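idk why but the lab printer keeps eating my pages so im just putting this in chat instead. protein + phosphoenolpyruvate:
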Amino acid sequence: MKRTPMIAGNWKMNLTIAAGVELVKTIHYTHRHPGEVDVVVAPPFTALRAIADTLNDSYISVAAQNIHWETSGAFTGEISAVFAKDAGAEYVIIGHSERRQYFGETNETVNKKVKAAFLHGLTPIVCVGETDAEREAGRVHEVINTQVEQGLAGLTKGQFENLIVAYEPVWAIGTGKTATGQQAEEVHASIRELLVKLTGQEAAEKIRILYGGSVGAKNAKELLSFPNIDGALVGGASLKPQDFVEIIKSAGAL
Ligand code: PEP
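predcted complex ->
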């Protein structure tokens, strides 16, 4: 089945409003005809509204990098799906390994956030991935399967169909070490097999599985050539407009 590729840029805790607006204007103007590619950028919360307004008439959509699972209330410092959407987000990254590592994100909180995202009309991009130690110990499939099963527990078929999964091996994030296309495809294919068990063939075939981990202008094309690699979640290279545009172009040429 043909799935529209997606290239999503995770800016993490980078770029002020002015710098973010400049970056998206550059991407927008240098690459106006992406063809069949969905492009998303995930700025810090403070820049969401300004970036969404700048991209109002463009082909690029906006994502939040996290949400809280509650809708509103006494949760000082948190941002819910309602507020992210109000600020212009259409997507939200959930369960990024940095949130799991530094902020106590668990498969259980991932699950609550995925449900909150759907409830309020945001499309979740759910991140899973093993650490170096887990790969060395031969536990890749066990770890990923648990993250997928628990993170996506209780979703409806309609929600599964609209979901995006990002496989991001932790050892490849921000390290310059990339999984080979073959290594990534092997995990992507096994995630899809598990999704078939969880929601059936038809819905599972619709789910885009992105690869993330040191994707850049040089390796994107090879990674994206594999049948179960439906796009990329890009960190560092998404801050460099030329590189990000090259990655978008690689996906467009599929
Ligand atoms: C990420 O943060 O999701 C990521 C993949 O980062 P990088 O591309 O810098 O490895």
